[in-house]
Design brief:
- The protein is mostly beta strands.
- It has one domain.
- It has no helices and 9 strands.
- The strands form 2 sheets. Strands 1, 4, 7, 8 and 9 form a 5-stranded antiparallel β-sheet that branches.
- A hairpin with a 2-residue loop joins β2 and β3.
């Protein structure tokens, strides 16, 4: 990876979906993360689901805050260790496991989401 990443403040124990704002390089961004499960059998798992997998994935929505309102930058299903570029930002996910009990509910169930963001160029 070419960039020096800062860890995104994702708190898997808050559950999914979740959203937060982040300031970087003089700009403010809105980030939303949501998990989609299309295979109901996966919801019976006693362990966190490694994402993505057939029937389950996590989606990131990234927008830049602007005077006229949010400017969408990126909407993607996330895959670990794949670097995403969105205008002036780069993003990467290193660990992506969400327990079914964290879908729509908070709690310490062993979910793990480790992701980073970096400025691609000076602003």
């Amino acid at each position: 990876m070419r960039h020096s990443y800062l860890r995104l403040p994702v708190d898997p124990d808050r559950g999914f979906p979740q959203a937060f704002r982040m300031a970087l390089a003089g700009r403010t961004y809105a980030i939303a993360l949501s998990v989609t499960v299309t295979d109901d059998a996966l919801l019976d798992s006693a362990l966190p689901l490694q994402l993505p997998q057939p029937g389950a994935f996590l989606v990131l929505d990234l927008a830049r805050e602007a005077e006229r309102g949010p400017e969408p930058m990126l909407r993607r299903k996330l895959v670990p260790h794949l670097e995403y570029e969105a205008d002036e930002l780069a993003l990467v996910v290193l660990d992506l496991a969400v327990h079914p009990r964290n879908l729509g509910a908070p709690g310490a169930h062993g979910s793990r989401v480790v992701a980073g963001v970096a400025a691609r160029w000076a602003s």
